[in-house]
Structure formats: structure tokens, C-alpha cells
């Protein structure tokens, strides 16, 4: 029954996102991503994963699952319907103490089932003035455990202006989603080196700020 | 079939014919010069021609649907243009409610005023009431940084994308003796003249363009393209006198004014793009860039065309 409603809801969300943002993808060298990919992106809004999801071609969209915090997405019936049923999110417990399932384990399970992931390695939405917060280590562990997956940096531009924190009416503004060159964990690269390299790769995709 | 429908048919067939020739030429050029899709100029030309087909078909559908179709089409154009414009502004979080009001209150109201044909309020709603209301909404949030720049940008965006653009469908509200029921042809006249002027300036510029007319604003515009394009488009306008309430000479003069305003409108919008460091306003139309890239000359000429027609042909 829920899945019967979930499909049309997904279409409505997609149309709404397009009407507000006219979202446009920029692929790396015009090439679509591979089927086994981890998309890691900057995080400034709850709608971030929807934009990535919206620009992927349907073939890839069917197999991609966003990774999201269970604390937020299980808080109400509506949120859990949207997170779990509509977008099939991999919900992870962000609370270190007292969690029963290791996030890397949950994500790995989804990947073994053939899903791609949308991941926000900053961990939470970026409310600071910095373009990008430090990365959590999950991306490194996934890269080490699943070398057959490509790690694709994805920069989402402008969505934070569409709906700043605390506002509930979205402003229509044009958003872009820029895909960077896929990367892998290099031989002998340690955690800090890799996370720094991934962060740099993502930052390099950010549009230059217009002169103020 | 009424006379209006007949004229409309002739127009549609004419436009289809021109587009068919353009598509054919584009196809031949692609076979000759860019069989593997490697020549960006040819690819862009064909993307443009395809987009022209889509735009022509959309306008034709709106005309068939009547007043509501035309209002919805231009309402959507205003929405998409405003979306492109606001994306490039310095607006901050404190402008959130002002912008929400612009998109979801001012824009629909402006078109609703056309629907009920209330010209008095239509003509002052954005220049006076929105002009005063918007900065009030922004001010109460208390963020003063770049305040004047921000409120000026929002007002400018509304004037260009909503107020000026809405003067195209406003042509439907004019009451011209002896021209009843044919007003939709005035829109066709305006759009055809402006767009053919854009295309003809491009063609003349490519063929014999030497002298740059505004190198800092728009390096592709030339004096030769300007003169040739404006002259030819004025002739096109004169040749279309039979769909207007004007004589051939008047139609030519109107077309001349329209194309002149369109040309300078293009320059103004280019200056804004340069300042903001972008090449196109957006990416809505394949090959053309954003909607404003296509609409800029229409937007600048529509209010002038509307007023001249209203003052001289629409008594009372």
C-alpha cells in the first residue's frame, strides 16, 4: 500500500524540485557516472539528495540510495514515509553511544545489494560560513572496504539560498549539480590524507563566488 | 473560418515554412561540415533551430487556447525569467520574504489584473505598490548590509521580468475600433518582428560584420549587423501590416521602434551579465542559454509598443 503511494509522491517531489530549481547537471567530461558509485556531496539543506537524485538518469536513479541520519528521518510518520518509502534511504544512527548498527556496516550492506550511495561526509548540514566542513571518516572506510566502487565528488550549488534554515517557503532559484572526476583510495594512503584529498576534490567543483 | 483565424493560419504556415527551410539548411550544414557533431557552431545552430520549433509550437498552442493560454504562457515566462534574474542578485537571507512575495504574490497578481482587465491598477501595481512594499518587507528583518543594492535588485528584477514582460499579453486588453477579436495578432506581430530582428542582426553580422558596435558589452554585435538587421526587420514589420491595425508605413515605423528598443535592451542585459560574470542567464533553452537571453529584446520593446498602440489606436 505505501509503495503504491510512494511512486507518485516521488514523481511529485521530482516535478516540484525541478519547478523551483530548474536543476541542471554538469557531468565530468560529459560522461554519465558508473552504476557502482558513491556520490559524496556538500550538505547545506535537507533537499540536497533530492537534487542529485533528480538529475541522475532513471536507470541510475532506481539504484541509488541516500544515506541519512535516522534521528531526523524517523522523527515523524511523514518524514519516515518520505525517507524510507519514497527515497529508500539508508538510515544510520549518528549517535556513537548506544547504537546497535555500525553505519559503515549498514552502508556496506546496501552496496553489496547493488545500490549506489549518496553520502554527505560532513555529517550534518553546513550552517557555517566555511564552504565545507571537515569530513567524517565513513567515506574512507567505505573506500577501503569497497574498492570496486567509484567515489564521485558532487557539488550542489545554490540550494542553501532556495530554502535557508528555518524558512519554509522555497524561493525559486537556479541550482546546478556538478559531478567531479571519480576517485579511488590510493595505495598506502592513510585516512587523513585520503579525506583531505576527497575534500579538496569536492571544493574544486564549487563555483567561484561572484564579486560582491 | 473567421478572418482572424485565416490570418493566423497564414502566419503559422509562414513561420513553419521558414523553420522548415532553417532545419533543412542546418541539416545540410551538419552533413557537410560536422558529420560527427564536432563543430560547435553548427551544433549550436541546430540546437537553436530546434528550440525555435519548440517556442513557435508553444506560442501557437497558447494562441489556440485563447486569453487564458496567452496569460499562462507569459506568466510562466515571467516566472522563469525572475528565477534566472534573482539567481544572479546579491539578495541575502533577510530578503527571503520579499522574494517569496515577489514570486508568489506580485507575479500572479500582475497577471490576474490582466485577466480582469483592470488597466489602472495593472499599470501602477509594480512601479508603485510593489516598489514600496518590497523594501518594507526586507527592512523589518533588520539586515542593513548592501541594503540599497538588494532592494534595488529585487525591484529591477520585478520591473523587467514581470512588469515589462506582462505588457506583451496586455496587448489583448486594448480596444481598437475595427480590430475587435484580432488582438492576438498584435502579439504575433511584436514577437515576429523582435525575433526576426535578432536573427537578421546575427545573419548580417556573420556575413559582412566588421565594425564592433559595443565591444565591451557584446563583442559579437557589429554596426553592419545592427543596420542590416534593423532595416530588414522593419521591412518584415511593414510586410506584416495586414495583421495589424496599422497602414504599411505605420507598421514599418512601429517595427523600426520595436527593433531599436530590442537592440538596446539586449545591450543593457548584456551589461548586467558582464557585471555578474556570466555568459548566459541560464540554461532553459538549448543553444540559446536562458529564457532572458531570448526574451530581453521583447521585454524592452513590449511596453513602448503597447503604449504607442494604446495612445494612437485605442480611443478612450
TrEMBL record, chain B:
<feature type="transmembrane region" description="Helical">
    <location>
        <begin position="184"/>
        <end position="204"/>
    </location>
</feature>
<keyword id="KW-1133">Transmembrane helix</keyword>
<keyword id="KW-0812">Transmembrane</keyword>
<protein>
    <submittedName>
        <fullName>Phosphatidate cytidylyltransferase</fullName>
    </submittedName>
</protein>
<keyword id="KW-0472">Membrane</keyword>
<feature type="transmembrane region" description="Helical">
    <location>
        <begin position="50"/>
        <end position="76"/>
    </location>
</feature>
<dbReference type="Pfam" id="PF01148">
    <property type="entry name" value="CTP_transf_1"/>
</dbReference>
<keyword id="KW-0548">Nucleotidyltransferase</keyword>
<feature type="transmembrane region" description="Helical">
    <location>
        <begin position="97"/>
        <end position="116"/>
    </location>
</feature>
<feature type="transmembrane region" description="Helical">
    <location>
        <begin position="122"/>
        <end position="142"/>
    </location>
</feature>
<keyword id="KW-0808">Transferase</keyword>
<dbReference type="GO" id="GO:0016779">
    <property type="term" value="F:nucleotidyltransferase activity"/>
</dbReference>
<feature type="transmembrane region" description="Helical">
    <location>
        <begin position="154"/>
        <end position="172"/>
    </location>
</feature>
<feature type="transmembrane region" description="Helical">
    <location>
        <begin position="225"/>
        <end position="243"/>
    </location>
</feature>
<feature type="transmembrane region" description="Helical">
    <location>
        <begin position="249"/>
        <end position="272"/>
    </location>
</feature>
Amino acid at each position: 500500500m505505501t509503495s503504491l503511494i510512494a511512486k507518485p509522491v516521488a514523481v511529485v517531489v521530482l516535478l516540484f524540485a525541478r519547478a523551483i530549481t530548474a536543476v541542471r547537471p554538469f557531468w565530468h567530461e560529459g560522461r554519465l557516472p558508473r552504476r557502482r558509485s558513491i556520490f559524496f556531496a556538500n550538505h547545506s539543506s535537507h533537499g540536497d539528495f533530492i537534487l542529485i537524485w533528480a538529475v541522475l538518469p532513471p536507470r541510475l536513479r532506481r539504484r541509488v540510495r541516500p544515506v541519512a541520519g535516522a534521528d531526523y528521518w524517523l522523527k515523524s510518520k511523514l518524514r519516515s514515509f518520505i525517507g524510507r518509502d519514497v527515497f529508500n534511504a539508508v538510515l544510520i544512527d549518528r549517535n556513537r553511544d548506544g547504537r546497535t548498527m555500525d553505519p559503515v556496516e549498514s552502508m556496506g550492506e546496501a552496496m553489496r545489494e547493488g545500490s549506489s550511495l549518496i553520502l554527505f561526509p560532513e555529517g550534518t548540514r553546513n550552517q557555517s560560513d566555511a564552504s565545507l566542513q571537515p569530513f567524517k571518516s565513513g567515506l574512507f572506510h567505505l573506500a577501503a572496504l569497497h574498492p570496486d566502487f567509484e567515489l564521485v565528488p558532487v557539488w550542489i550549488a545554490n540550494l542553501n539560498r532556495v530554502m535557508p534554515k528555518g524558512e519554509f517557503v522555497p524561493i525559486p532559484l537556479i541550482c546546478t549539480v556538478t559531478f567531479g572526476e571519480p576517485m579511488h583510495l590510493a595505495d598506502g594512503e592513510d585516512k587523513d590524507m585520503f579525506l583531505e584529498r576527497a575534500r579538496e576534490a569536492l571544493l574544486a567543483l564549487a563555483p567561484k563566488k561572484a564579486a560582491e | 473560418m473567421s478572418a482572424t483565424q485565416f490570418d493566423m493560419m497564414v502566419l503559422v504556415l509562414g513561420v513553419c515554412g521558414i523553420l522548415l527551410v532553417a532545419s533543412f539548411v542546418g541539416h545540410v550544414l551538419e552533413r557537410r561540415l560536422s558529420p560527427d557533431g564536432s563543430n560547435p557552431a553548427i551544433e549550436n545552430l541546430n540546437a537553436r533551430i530546434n528550440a525555435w520549433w519548440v517556442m513557435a509550437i508553444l506560442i501557437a498552442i497558447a494562441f489556440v487556447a485563447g486569453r487564458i493560454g496567452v496569460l499562462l504562457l507569459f506568466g510562466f515566462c515571467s516566472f522563469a525569467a525572475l528565477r534566472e534574474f534573482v539567481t544572479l542578485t546579491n539578495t541575502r537571507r533577510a530578503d527571503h520574504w520579499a522574494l517569496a512575495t515577489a514570486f508568489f504574490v506580485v507575479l500572479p497578481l500582475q497577471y490576474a489584473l490582466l485577466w480582469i482587465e483592470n488597466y489602472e491598477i495593472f499599470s501602477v501595481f509594480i512601479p508603485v505598490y510593489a516598489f514600496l512594499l518590497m523594501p518594507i518587507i526586507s527592512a523589518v528583518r533588520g539586515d542593513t548590509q548592501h541594503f540599497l543594492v538588494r532592494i534595488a535588485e529585487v525591484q529591477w528584477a520585478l520591473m523587467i521580468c514581470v512588469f515589462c514582460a506582462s505588457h506583451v499579453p496586455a496587448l489583448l486588453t486594448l480596444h481598437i475600433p475595427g480590430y475587435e477579436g484580432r488582438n492576438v495578432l498584435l502579439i504575433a506581430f511584436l514577437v515576429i518582428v523582435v525575433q526576426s530582428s535578432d536573427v537578421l542582426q546575427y545573419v548580417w553580422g556573420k556575413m559582412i560584420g566588421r565594425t564592433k558596435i559595443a565591444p565591451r558589452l557584446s563583442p559579437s554585435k557589429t554596426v553592419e549587423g545592427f543596420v542590416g538587421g534593423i532595416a530588414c526587420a522593419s521591412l518584415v514589420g511593414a510586410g506584416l501590416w495586414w495583421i495589424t491595425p496599422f497602414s504599411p508605413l505605420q507598421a514599418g515605423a512601429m517595427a523600426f521602434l520595436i527593433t531599436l528598443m530590442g537592440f538596446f535592451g539586449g545591450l543593457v542585459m548584456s551589461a548586467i551579465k558582464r557585471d555578474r560574470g556570466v555568459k548566459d542567464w541560464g540554461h532553459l533553452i538549448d543553444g540559446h542559454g536562458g529564457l532572458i537571453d531570448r526574451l530581453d529584446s521583447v521585454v524592452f520593446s513590449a511596453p513602448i509598443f503597447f503604449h504607442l498602440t494604446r495612445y494612437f489606436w485605442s480611443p478612450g
